[in-house]
Inverse folding.
């Protein structure tokens, strides 16, 4: 550590006081102690903001929990909630190794780097960020931003700030531990799962979430088969051990974020949220989870002289709005569980007879989809995309299935299954063929020659080894120029085998094709990857647009995506715009392209062609 100049000894005095107050603060007084420390540090460095972010346990989200701002600097805290941690991904690796990030002058950074762009877009000149690190994990970060001037932190100052971040981290961990102890009353002693009361609270919460998210969720009521006989044969102590074993097994079959509670002796309740927007996909998802649990539980349970194959019966009730009560859902799932028992145990049953019928009709869907492929029952609808001046820039092709009996079926009801079964590869080819033919026709007419056509590509389709050659062949057959074709990929495709993804994208972008990242913000993109891929556009998911005027988190995320797009040189398109106010807000935030019911619903091409001649202009 270099020696501090004499006038910095007052800084050490300050640090000692802050450290004392952090270490001694009670759980309830901790927020005050942290805010006080941030204010003192900010004022000492004549900084513009000093702040704390806390990360969730799985390092997915960051919340700005505490901040201090200099006079006249506007507070950001409310806008910076539940941000994807990937926003800091350039720095996370360093933080995890206990290293801090010190940038005295951002002009020293490579101007093309995402780090530079991110900092420059906020006019930051100097920044210091320190990790909040416990022995086992990264829990957050503590930072100081300077906008009006530069600052060069000396080693002594940094060491003192590291001490403070250690104190903050320790105090936060102590606070978390105390809170955990308080909530112990809500957990079952035998299995450490949520008890009946907490499970019901969580279900209540899930019902409220479901009303907001407009996605299906499910309650699974699980009962261990023949548990009484097991208890009678081996005694209660062994019965307890079996219940613990079953609870672990169920827990391991679930995703993080799913809730498992112990409801009564041998009864467990699982809550699965955000299954899907469509009942068909929600049924498949919940069925897959229930079958996995049943299969795992059935594996041999071996303990000394006991060798037992446990089994369970599961009753399921599905819900998709906030009108349900927790008691009603539990009762329904419980009734369905009895039907599963009546069907011979080791079975699952849906409460709703219609859903039960659906769950067994997958084979029907499979047959019908095969006929649809052979019988050319798919058509494309197009949805217009406009720029900020109201000029038309392109259209997204959205598949519809013209079912001989059911009429027009939306993709939500079959794409999920097509993907699972592999039929998406054939369907994807049909979509590309039709879209390229349409593109070629528009390219022939001077009024529409500049339009792009965006086509959704599913993960399984993109992973095919011959994906690139298929696209090239289809383009050639259609006679369309590649430069008008945009392929929409989703974030989840970029997670595995990034080299293969990049290779394919590079080969196609060399031909003039463009790439757009659909539903951006809903997955966990690594910014480091985004930089390396030949992307042209980010699409802000309509989930963030819906409440952009009322939910400050959604606004913050949209703002971040636009800043990120600018930093990476990508255009940003917002989808799902339904009102002029949403459009106005997105324009204000700097978004450049727009799509949504306000500007046009997805429609058959004939309607689109007539709409093209009578385009309304939204300014
Ligand atoms: P996506 O690619 O995100 O498409 C946008 C979806 O949002 C479309 O639903 C569109 O109708 C809907 N939408 C557009 N504007 C608004 C609005 O203002 N409000 C609301 N509430 N919704 C709006 P759609 O056509 O049902 O398609 C759903 C999803 O199905 C698509 O989401 C895409 O992921 C998938 N999909 C559609 N066509 C294809 C295809 O040809 N291939 C593949 N693999 N997937 C497709
Ligand atoms: Mg799309
Ligand atoms: Mg989308």
């Amino acid at each position: 550590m270099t020696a501090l100049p004499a006038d910095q000894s007052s800084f050490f005095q300050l640090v000692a006081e802050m450290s004392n107050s952090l270490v001694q603060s009670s759980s309830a007084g901790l927020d005050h102690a942290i805010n006080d420390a941030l204010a003192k540090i900010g004022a000492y460095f004549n900084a513009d903001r000093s702040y704390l972010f806390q990360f969730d346990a799985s390092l997915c989200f960051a919340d700005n929990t505490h901040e201090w701002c200099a006079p006249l600097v506007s507070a950001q805290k409310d806008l910076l909630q539940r941000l994807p941690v990937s926003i800091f991904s350039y720095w996370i690796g360093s933080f995890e190794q206990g290293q801090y990030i010190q940038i005295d002058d951002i002009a020293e950074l490579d101007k093309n780097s995402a780090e530079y762009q991110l900092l420059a877009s906020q006019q930051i000149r100097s920044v210091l960020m320190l990790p909040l690190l416990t022995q086992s994990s990264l829990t957050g970060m503590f930072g100081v931003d300077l906008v009006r001037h530069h600052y060069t932190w000396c080693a002594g100052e940094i060491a003192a700030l590291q001490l403070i971040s250690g104190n903050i981290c320790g105090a936060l961990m102590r606070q978390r531990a105390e809170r955990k102890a308080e909530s112990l009353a809500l957990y079952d002693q035998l299995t450490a799962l949520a008890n009946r009361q907490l499970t019901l609270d969580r279900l209540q919460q899930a019902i409220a979430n479901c009303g907001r998210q407009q996605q299906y969720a499910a309650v699974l009521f699980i009962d261990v088969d023949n548990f009484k006989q097991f208890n009678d044969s081996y005694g209660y102590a062994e019965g307890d051990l079996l219940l613990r074993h079953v609870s672990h097994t169920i827990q391991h079959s679930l995703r993080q974020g799913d809730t498992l509670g112990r409801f009564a002796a041998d009864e467990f309740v699982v809550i699965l949220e955000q299954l899907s927007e469509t009942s068909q996909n929600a049924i498949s998802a919940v069925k897959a989870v229930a079958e996995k649990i049943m299969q795992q539980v059935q594996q041999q349970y071996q303990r000394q002289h006991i060798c037992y194959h446990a089994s369970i019966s599961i009753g399921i009730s599905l819900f998709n709005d906030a009108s349900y009560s927790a008691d009603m859902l539990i009762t329904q799932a419980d009734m369905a569980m009895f039907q599963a028992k009546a069907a011979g145990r080791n079975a699952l049953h849906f409460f709703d007879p219609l859903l039960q019928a659906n769950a067994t009709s997958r084979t029907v869907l499979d047959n019908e989809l095969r006929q649809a492929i052979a019988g050319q029952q798919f058509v494309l609808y197009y949805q217009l995309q406009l720029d900020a001046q109201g000029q038309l820039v392109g259209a997204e092709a959205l598949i519809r299935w013209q079912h001989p009996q059911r009429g027009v079926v939306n993709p939500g009801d079959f794409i999920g299954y097509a993907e699972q079964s592999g039929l998406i590869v054939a369907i994807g080819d049909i979509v590309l063929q039709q879209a390229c033919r349409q593109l070629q026709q528009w390219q022939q007419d001077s009024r529409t020659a500049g339009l792009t056509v965006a086509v959704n590509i599913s993960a399984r389709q993109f992973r095919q080894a011959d994906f690139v050659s298929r696209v090239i062949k289809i383009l050639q057959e259609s006679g369309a120029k590649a430069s008008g074709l945009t392929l929409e990929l989703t974030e989840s495709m970029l997670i595995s085998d990034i080299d293969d993804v990049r290779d394919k994208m590079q080969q196609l972008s060399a031909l003039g094709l463009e790439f757009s990242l659909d539903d951006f913000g809903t997955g966990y993109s690594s910014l480091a990857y985004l930089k390396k891929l030949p992307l042209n556009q980010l699409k802000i998911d309509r989930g963030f647009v819906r409440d952009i005027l009322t939910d400050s988190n959604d606004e913050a995320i949209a703002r971040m995506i636009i800043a990120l797009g600018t930093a990476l040189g990508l255009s940003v398109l917002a989808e799902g715009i339904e009102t002029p106010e949403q459009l106005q807000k997105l324009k204000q935030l700097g978004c450049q392209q727009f799509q949504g019911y306000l500007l046009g619903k997805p429609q058959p091409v004939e309607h689109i062609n007539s709409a093209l001649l009578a385009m309304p202009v939204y300014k």
In short: The CA atoms of residues 262 and 268 lie 4 Å apart. The first strand starts at residue 49 and ends at 55. The radius of gyration is 28 Å.
